[in-house]
Amino acid sequence: MIEVRDLVVERGRRRVLHGISCVVPAGSVTGLLGPSGSGKTTLIRAVVGVQIVRSGSVTVLGKPAGSAALRRSVGYVTQAPSVYADLSVRENARYFAALYGLGATEADQAVADVGLKDAAGQLVGNLSGGQRSRASLACAMIGKPQLLVLDEPTVGQDPVLRAELWGRFHALAAAGTTLLVSSHVMDEAGRCDRLLLIRDGLIIGDDTPAAIRADAGTDDLEEAFLRLIRSQQGAAA
Amino acid sequence: MIALATTGRILRQLRHDRRTVALLLVVPALLLTLLYFMYEDTPHTFDRIALIMLGIFPFTIMFLVTSIAMLRERTSGTLERLLTTPLRKTDLLFGYGLAFSLAAVVQGAVATGVAYGLLGLDTSASAGLILLIAVVDAVLGVAIGLLCSAFARTEFQAVQFLPVVVVPQILLCGLFVPRSQMAGWLQAISDVLPLTYAVDALGSAGATMWRDVTIVAGAAVVALILAAATLRRRTP
Ligand SMILES: Nc1ncnc2c1ncn2[C@@H]1O[C@H](COP(=O)(O)OP(=O)(O)OP(=O)(O)O)[C@@H](O)[C@H]1O
Ligand SMILES: [Mg+2]
C-alpha cells in the first residue's frame, strides 16, 4: 500500500529524515508514533506528496507519492486543522465533497460521522479546538479514499470521542481502507494494528504492538518505546 | 466544475464577512464623492480624474483582497490540503479569478452608478463600457495579486507588494503627469506596465479602446499562467 525506501528529507538545511524505509500494509491501521519533532509530519507530508524530498522513494498504491492518479484515493488531514474558519462546518464539507465530484448527502453524512451534526451550521472559527479538528477530519473522509493519512487526528478530543473515532478508523480498515495515523500519545499505540516508531528521523520499531511488547519484555508500550531508544543508543555508543 | 465550486466557496466566505463586503461596495463610491467635492469648481478635472479612478480603484482593491485571501489559503494549511485533492492548480486560480471578478462587477456597478447618477460624471464612452473596463481592470488586479502572493510568506510581506507593484503603476499611468510629457525612459517603463493600458482604455474610444482592453486582459492571462507556474505542490 505504502512503500517508503531510503527516504531522506532536508528541511531548512537540516536533515530531518535520515534514510527511512518502511511498508504500510493495506486494510490496516498503522500508527506512526514518536516524540515531538521526530519527523512524523515530515514523513506524512512525503506520503501525500507535498514534501520536497532529497532522495529515496515513496510509492503509494503502486504509484509515486503525489501523482495525479492518487489524488482521488488519498485523504489527508493536516496536523493543524485545515478547514476554512469563515465557513460553516457544512459549507466546508460540501466544498470538499465537490472536489471529489460528490454531493451534499455525502458531505452531511461525513459531518454526522464525526459527531458534528448539531454544530453543522456553526462557523468553524467559532468551534472548540477538538470540534475544529473533527471538522477537518470529516472533510478528508468524504471521498471514501482508499488511503487515509491522519496527522494527530485525536488531539484535544475527550476519551469518549477518542474511543469513538478509533472505532470508526477500525471500521474503515475492516472495509478495506488503509489508515496511517500519527500520534505522540502512547496510550493510542495499543489501538493500532501495526506501529511505526520514529525518533530523530529514524525508524526504530516497525511491528505489531504485541510483538513490540514481547521484544521489549514489557506490557507497557511507553516503557517498550523507552527501552527501544536505550538499546539503540547502546548500539550507537 | 471544481473551479466553479471553488468560486462558490470563496463567495460564501466573503458573504460571512459582512464588513468586508460593505467596505468593498461603499468605499470606491465614497472616494469618488470626495473627489467630486474636491473638484466642485472644475467639473472637467473631476470628469478626468474620476474616470481614471473608476479603473484604479477596482485594480488596487482586488489586488489587495486577492493577495491576502490567497496568502491565508497558504498559511492556514488549506492550500497544502487542496493540492492533495483532485483540484488542479488552474481550478483554484480560475476559481479565485471568477469569484473576485464577480465581486468587482457588483463593486463597479455601485461605483459607476454613483458616479454617473449622483455625481454627474460626463464621459465620451457610455457608462456600460466604462463598467466593463473597470471589471477587466479588477481581473488584472486579481491576477497580479494571485501571482504576488506566491512570493509572500506573511501578511506583512503581502501588503508590502502594494507599494512595490501597484503604486509605481499608478504614478506612471498618466494620472499625475500626461504620458506624453514624461521623460523618454519613464514613458518606456510606463509602456510595459499593464495599468497604463487599463487607464488608457478608459479615456479612449473605438479601436484604441478595444486594443487597450485586449492588452489588459492579455496581461491578466499572463499573470494567471505565471501564478499557476509558481504555485508549488511540493514545499520544503
Ligand atoms: N518548514 C520547516 N522548515 C525547517 N525545519 C522544519 C520545518 N518543519 C519542520 N521542521 C523541523 O523538522 C523536524 C521534524 O518536524 P516534524 O514536523 O516532522 O515533527 P513531528 O514529529 O511531526 O512533531 P510534532 O509531534 O511536534 O508534530 C523538526 O526538528 C522541525 O523543527
Ligand atoms: Mg507533527
Automatic annotation (TrEMBL), chain A:
Give the matching CDD domains. Answer: ABC_DR_subfamily_A (cd03230)
Q: Does the keyword ATP-binding apply?
A: yes
Report the SUPFAM superfamilies cross-referenced here.
Answer: P-loop containing nucleoside triphosphate hydrolases
Q: List the molecular function annotations (GO) for this entry.
A: ATP binding; ATP hydrolysis activity
Q: What are the residue boundaries of the ABC transporter domain, all occurrences included?
A: 2-225
Pfam families under this entry?
Answer: ABC_tran
Among SMART domains, the record links this protein to: AAA
- Please state what the protein is called: Multidrug ABC transporter ATP-binding protein
Tell me which species this is from.
Paractinoplanes toevensis
From TrEMBL, chain B:
**Pfam families attached to this UniProt entry:** ABC2_membrane
**Which species is this UniProt entry from?**
Paractinoplanes toevensis
Molecular function per GO = ABC-type transporter activity
Would you name any one GO CC term? ATP-binding cassette (ABC) transporter complex
- GO aspect biological process, one term: response to antibiotic
Q: Where are the transmembrane segments?
A: 21-39, 51-71, 92-119, 125-147, 159-177, 213-231
Please give, as recorded in its UniProt entry, the membrane topology of this protein: Multi-pass membrane protein
The protein's name: Transport permease protein
Keyword Cell membrane listed? The answer is: yes
Q: Where in the cell is it found?
A: Cell membrane
Concerning InterPro entries, the annotation shows:
ABC-2_transporter_component, ABC2_TM, ABC2_TM_bact-type, ABC_2_transport
